[in-house]
Amino acid sequence: MGVSEKMHETKKFPIFPLSILPLPGEIVPLHIFEPRYRQLLEDLEAGDGLFGILYSGLNNRYQLGTILNLEQVMKKYPTGESDIVCRGGDVFILVDYFMNYPGKLYPGGNIHILDFPDFPVGNELDEIFRSYMTDKDQSNLGDILMINDVANELDLDIQDRLSYLQILQKDKREKFLFERVRFRKHVLDQETRTNKFFIYN
C-alpha cells in the first residue's frame, strides 16, 4: 500500500465533502444549491477554478480526496442554484480540516498532494483492455492508453476507487486494473455465451 503517512508540505485549499470520489481525468457533474457552495462557485469563477472534493465515507481512513477543476457552468437557476461540470485532477490527503475556509462560508483544509502521475499502460493491460472494450463494441481507443483513462472507463465502485488511489507504485496500479479488467471480461464472456445459448435453442 502506497499511502502510509501524512506528509509535512501542505497547502490550504477549499474543500467540498461529498459521498463521491472522482478519479483523475474523470468528468464530474455537480448541482450547487447550498449558500456556502454558491459562494465557493463564485470564488472559483473569479479565481483558478480549483477545489478539493473529500470523500466523506467512514471507510476513507486516509482522508483521500481529488482536486477538481471547474470546466464549465452549464446552467444558473433563478433560485441561485447552478449545474456545473468539473474534471478530476491531483489526488490529495487531507491533513487538517476546518469548517470554514478563512473568511468564507464553505469548508477548507490543509492538504498534501500525492505523486500520482498518469502514464501509458504496458502491453499486458493494453491487450486485455482493448479486447474487453472490443467485446463491448467500443474499439476506437487511440494508439496510446493512459492508466487513468483505463480506470475511468471501468466505472469503479467506491471501494475500488479508494484502493486505486492508495496505490502509488505504477506497476501495482497496472496490476490492480488488470485484475479488474480480467474479471469484467470473464463476466462479459459468460453473458455472451448465455445469450447465444438462448438465441439458438
TrEMBL record:
It holds the Pfam family LON_substr_bdg. Gene3D superfamilies: LON domain-like. Residues 13-97 form the Lon N-terminal domain. It comes from the Bacteria. This is Lon N-terminal domain-containing protein. It comes from Fulvivirga sedimenti.
